[in-house]
Specification:
Blueprint: H1 2-13, E1 15-20, E2 31-34, H2 41-51, E3 57-61, H3 70-76, E4 80-82, H4 89-101, E5 106-109, H5 131-139, E6 143-149, H6 151-154, H7 159-172, E7 175-180, H8 190-211
Parallel strand pairs: 1-7, 2-5, 2-6, 3-4, 3-5
Antiparallel strand pairs: 6-7
Length: 219
């Protein structure tokens, strides 16, 4: 349901284009690792993946499960809440590994948070946390790096600016681009694997930025 909603709504808000280094849907049992730049980018990523024939399970902050309607959609879709900073956080990786073993695709944000700048500039991914590398090591799943650019043109800044951005997006129709790199298997210790993943996602983001026509420009 979440992917269907994103697939319907995102093309209304902006001009979405998608490229991939591998034809067809993401292989079952894969981890998609994406850069996180905006509250809007999960919708952009889900719409892009659905266009490629993939509807993933999303790992997201547990607070979203308390949002009316959205929480119900997340529960119904079997998405995975991450209770950051608590003893329950590790359980999310167990749930993700089980989803991978069942043949689902799992979407994870390696940065684990949003950038701190408030304008609409797109910047390269920040430091990655170790959860992605630990999940890949525990599951043996391939990692598909995903870079997205343009979501900050939909939503960035304070609450008022974000609402204004969404309200005016159908008129502005900002360019949005998602690029999927080739799958890779993370090797080495956790630190090395984390660095490899960040490098691959950054390369995918740079490709998305080129296709997006200069996503670092201000609105």
């Amino acid at each position: 349901m979440l992917s269907r909603i994103a697939g319907t709504l995102v093309p209304v808000l902006g001009r979405l284009s998608v490229t991939s280094e591998v034809a067809g849907p993401v292989a079952p049992g894969s981890i998609v690792a994406a850069n996180h730049s905006s509250l809007a980018d999960p919708g952009v990523v889900l719409a892009a993946l659905r266009r490629l024939g993939t509807e993933p399970v999303v790992m997201a902050t547990a607070g979203l499960w308390r949002v009316p309607v959205l929480g119900r959609v997340l529960r119904t879709g079997g998405h995975i809440p991450v209770h950051r900073g608590t003893a329950r956080a590790a359980g999310a990786l167990d749930s993700a590994a089980a989803a991978l073993a069942a043949g689902r695709v799992v979407l994870i944000y390696g940065e684990g948070g949003l950038p701190k700048h408030r304008d609409s500039r797109d910047t390269e991914p920040g430091a990655f946390r170790t959860g992605l590398a630990r999940l890949a090591a525990a599951s043996g799943a391939p990692v598909v790096p995903l870079g997205q650019c343009g979501a900050r043109r939909l939503s960035s800044g304070g609450a008022a600016k974000q609402l204004a951005g969404f309200a005016t997006a159908p008129l502005r129709r900002p360019a949005l681009h998602v690029h999927l790199g080739a799958p890779l298997h993370l090797a080495g210790d956790t630190g090395e694997a984390t660095a490899t993943a960040r490098h691959a996602v950054t390369a995918a983001w740079r490709t998305a930025e080129r296709h997006c026509g200069g996503c670092d420009q201000r609105r």
